[in-house]
Here is the input.
Amino acid sequence: MKLSGKTVLVTGSSQGIGQAIALRMAQEGADVVVNYHSHPGEADDVKAQIEGLGRRAVAIGADLGSVSSVNQLIADGVTAFGKLDILVNNAGVEKNAAFWDVTEKDYDFVLNTNLKGPFFATQAFVKYLQGRKSPGKIINISSVHEDLPFPHFTAYCASKGGLKMMTRNLSIELAPLGITINNIAPGAIETPINTALLHDPAKLNALLQNIPLQRLGQPGDISSAVAFLASPEADYITGTTLVIDGGLTWNYSEQ
Here is the structure.
């Protein structure tokens, strides 16, 4: 197991891609901090599944839009297992609205969760690693929309573009500390956030026509890449974005 003896914190891991990542980390031998915001029951279920794999797990709630809450999440994760080795910034939200209808509340909700949260979670994690003079790994879950336009989701695209640049910048700052940071940009993945799409045959078919591999991605497609980046096999990789989209980005056109 590639992550035996490691401890991983996965934000937003009560469902969807985050849940798949948390379970894969456990399968690779890691103990896992399962983070949730509004789904404690689902987080407890993920915790139970991890324990069923023979690994330790703890479920910790946090509002990633609050710096104090993010700092507490890192501290509680360390307290739970005695250390943290890997941080996966997975939690993300989106709001569908025409640009001229976006409210300040909507904008803050998206940017606080998708960019401010990862920024300060990473800062708290790095400070912790510095305090114990340890190396570490940070993996951000972004989106193809860090590059690919997505009309009616401008705040979301801005947050993901910011996450990509944060990853590049911090790769330079953190490398001398033995800390790597990388980015994964999923395309269309079959998760609860896409429930409406999955039940709209016309929209789903139009999307599939834009994906050369002719299928939606599965959460496991992302968690496998996270397992690689978290492993010693990726020790010389930092500052990069791994796009996992079935070819969507280079074949996409607005209908």
Notes: The chain has a mean pLDDT of 95. Residues 212 and 247 are 5 Å apart (CA to CA). The two ends are 45 Å apart (CA to CA).
